[in-house]
C-alpha cells in the first residue's frame, strides 16, 4: 500500500481519477526525486526551486490542489519520458524547467521561505544533494 501525505478528507474532495493520479504522482516523486537530483542537480539551474517545490508538495499545510499540481510537475521532472531527452546538454532539462517554473509561477505564494530554507539545507553550494542517501519524506 502506498503511503501518501494527503489527508483522507482531502482525497474525498477529488474524483476517483484525480485521486489515482495524485497518489501515482506522489509515489513516483517520493521514489525517484532524490535519485534524479543526485544525477541532474549540477546540470539544472533550477535545483533549489525543484527541492523547495518538493518540500512544499509534502507539506500538509499546502493546499490540496497546490500539492497535486506540484506533484504533477515534479513527476514530469523525474520521469524518464518527456518531450526533450534530459541527456541532451543544456536543452535537455528545458521542458522540465518550463513545467516546474510554470507551476511555481502560478503557485508562488504557496512555496514558502521555509521550503526554500529546507532546500538550501538539502543542497550543497553547487546545488547537489548533501548526501548520497535518499532524503526522508
From TrEMBL:
It is a multi-pass membrane protein. It comes from the Bacteria. GO terms for cellular component: endomembrane system. Keywords: Membrane, Transmembrane, Transmembrane helix. It is found in: Endomembrane system. Residues 118-137 are annotated as: Disordered. InterPro entries: DUF1232 (IPR010652). Pfam families: DUF1232. Residues 67-101 form the DUF1232 domain. This is Uncharacterized membrane protein YkvA (DUF1232 family).
Amino acid at each position: 500500500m502506498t503511503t501518501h501525505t494527503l489527508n483522507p478528507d482531502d482525497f474525498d474532495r477529488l474524483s476517483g481519477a484525480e485521486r489515482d493520479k495524485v497518489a501515482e504522482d506522489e509515489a513516483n516523486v517520493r521514489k525517484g526525486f532524490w535519485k534524479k537530483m543526485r544525477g541532474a542537480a549540477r546540470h539544472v539551474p533550477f535545483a533549489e526551486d525543484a527541492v523547495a517545490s518538493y518540500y512544499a508538495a509534502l507539506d500538509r499545510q499546502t493546499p490540496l490542489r497546490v500539492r497535486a499540481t506540484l506533484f504533477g510537475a515534479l513527476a514530469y521532472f523525474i520521469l524518464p519520458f518527456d518531450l526533450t531527452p534530459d541527456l541532451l546538454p543544456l536543452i535537455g532539462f528545458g521542458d522540465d524547467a518550463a513545467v516546474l517554473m510554470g507551476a511555481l509561477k502560478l503557485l508562488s505564494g504557496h512555496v514558502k521561505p521555509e521550503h526554500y530554507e529546507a532546500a538550501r539545507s538539502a543542497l550543497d553550494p553547487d546545488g547537489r544533494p548533501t548526501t548520497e542517501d535518499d532524503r526522508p519524506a
